[in-house]
Amino acid sequence: MNGPSSIDVTVRLYRSLRLIRRVEEVVAEIYPSDKIKSPVHLSIGQEAVAVGVCDTLRADDVVSGTYRSHAAYIAKGGDLKAMFAELYGKATGCAGGKAGSMHLIDMGHNILGSSAVVGTTVPIALGYAYAIRRRGEDRVVVAYFGDGATEEGVFHESLNFAALKQLPVLFVCENNQFAIHQPLEKRWATDRLCERVETYGISAKKFADSNVESIRTHTQGAIAEMRAGGGPAFMECVTYRWREHVGPGEDYDAGYRDRTEYEAWSDKDEVARLGAALGENRRADIDAEIEQQIAEAVEFAESSPFPAIEELHTHVFAG
Whose CA is closest to 271, among 105, 32, 60, 51? Predict the structure, then answer.
């Protein structure tokens, strides 16, 4: 059987990129109204990392995100209505309205629960990969984390254990070059992250920009090796968040970064590049479908009920 054509892949990648971008732009528009009941960490500008990796995965593969996980959640096929409802704190949300933006989960699509605590989802993803290996399955786990998480001790412990047990986990560092407001050069003695990872015997690859096709092609090969019994792999994807660390606005007047950095990244925006490659009519059709999908998700969240007061006492202890 022939595989998908290059135009089919481009359409699929663009649709996912555009959906994530528009979802987060809509979130940014709604946020000042106080309808969204939790802090939001937007991935605008970083979408290609989530899409390039997740496009290669099977439905039964597992993804573990961070508190900036809207992009990974959507790219893996998470329920958009349940995501918006969760942001609104509604009972129909993916965590019953109790968790908010930083704790999205959709196990129906094999999306592990994310966490507001930096680095903590990495060993959880590792444990899931360990279970997969012990069961003899050919599924894989993708663990997303930011550059700040690589400074946590558990990151190095996880690399060591994954290599020791040859676990099917793909470590993906979304290196947006800032830990909140601190740039890399004030935190890292060297920027040779892949070199540090390789000392554990793990293959590592750095992507200096957010080219979604390059990320996708490399991920395909890495995942194929894991399914064949190979061990873990590591990807460092340099990217750039366009909005503030937390919240819907911009922060280029905060003194820790310059707007010229944003302009350099926006000039090579993957959403715009792939959209241009499709042609105006095809792109317009996809865009219209996406706007309808988002409108339905927002309406679902708006019309859903808040959790009953009794829910305060549920999920406090394991059942």
Answer: 51
Q: Which residues contact 106 (CB under 8 A, 6 or more apart)?
A: 73, 76, 78, 79, 82, 83, 94
3-state secondary structure of 171: strand
Q: Does the structural domain 6-306 have CATH classification 2.60.40.3140?
A: no
pLDDT digits (tens, 9 = 90+) for 183-199: 999 999 999 999 999 99
Residue 24's closest CA among 177, 283, 240, 249? 249
* pLDDT (tens digit per residue) in 61-119: 999 999 999 999 999 999 999 999 999 999 999 999 999 999 999 999 999 999 999 99
Domain locations in the chain as residue ranges? 6-306
Beta strands 203-207 and 141-146, pairing class:
unpaired
Alpha carbon separation from 208 to 149, 213, 265 (Å, rounded): 19, 13, 12
E-strand ranges in the chain read: 62-64, 111-112, 141-146, 169-175, 178-179, 182-183, 203-207, 233-238
Count other Cβ atoms within 10 Å, centred on residue 26.
16
Neighbouring CB atoms inside 10 A of 33's CB total: 7
pLDDT tens, residue by residue, 106-154: 999 999 999 999 999 999 999 999 999 999 999 999 999 999 999 999 9
The H or E element spanning position 298 is helix 280-303
CA angle 282, 284, 289 (to 5 degrees): 100
Phi, psi angles (nearest 5°) of residue 205: -135, 135
Q: pTM of this prediction? A: 0.96
Candidates 57, 13, 5; CA nearest to 226 is 57
